[in-house]
Amino acid sequence: MTLSGCASGPYHHQSDRADSKGIDDFFAGEGCAIGPTTRHAALAEGFQESDIDALVSAAKLDEQTVVTGEWVVLPPDMCTIRLPSPLGALALSDPEVMAATSSTSAYYNSGTYRNTEDLGCFLSSPKLHDSLRQSRGWDDHTISIEYTRMLGRAIAQGNAAFYSDSPLRTPPGYQILKGNCANVPAMPEIRESNAFLRDHFDGLVRALGQSLACDSDVNLIMTYNENVAGTLQENTPFNAWRGLEIMTVAMGAGWYENMSATAPGAPRPPLCHYP
Hints:
Elements: H1 23-28, E1 33-34, H2 36-44, H3 49-59, E2 66-68, E3 71-73, H4 95-99, H5 106-109, E4 121-123, H6 125-135, H7 140-156, E5 160-161, E6 174-176, H8 187-199, H9 201-211, H10 220-227, H11 242-253, E7 256-257, E8 266-267
Antiparallel strand pairs: 1-3, 2-3, 4-6, 5-6, 7-8
């Protein structure tokens, strides 16, 4: 597939609430996917079973609808997958997060990182996790959930990125793109990459769903690199770690099921399909 222009459980929280624009808008925030967990979430928001069933019946008349396992992924002409912006209990402006974020030159001056892309404010996950255990008394599971929610929302809002122009370079961590942290040489390329992710999220996720199996053993990042990245047009803004950004956003939004502090869980449609 060539992209044009390119062209949940008890911890599941979305900012796209059901009382905004109706059932179509609700499922757009759930990846345009109707299945056990999203159906339950829709019912909890006050939508009627009959309306959900009618939406599924209409979708099944479209040849672009994906039916996989117990899931139905609505076709592009019925639903556009929206980049989710999950709500959570942690924000980039919280003191623990700010204390775990480096200055723009800290990694570059350390001698370990010497690429100009390493000029930036990077978040230390281990430092933040240790701090949250002390300051908030959170267990590892809560920290994992809230951390991914925060990062997913920050990516969706253009305030964080995991970016590199080379697959041979791993950034020191998630990069913060707000305030003085934005005054770094690679920022124009990072902004272009983030805008591309937001503008083409629907197409990227649908392409990924064709290749990725809904299983806890799958590697979303590798599948994206091998089956999606190569289909993008030559002038597409590049990010060697776009697959990781998609995975982080999806985890934060609850598109992975049975997540824990030690296991990422399994992706669910539209990220994947059942064999």
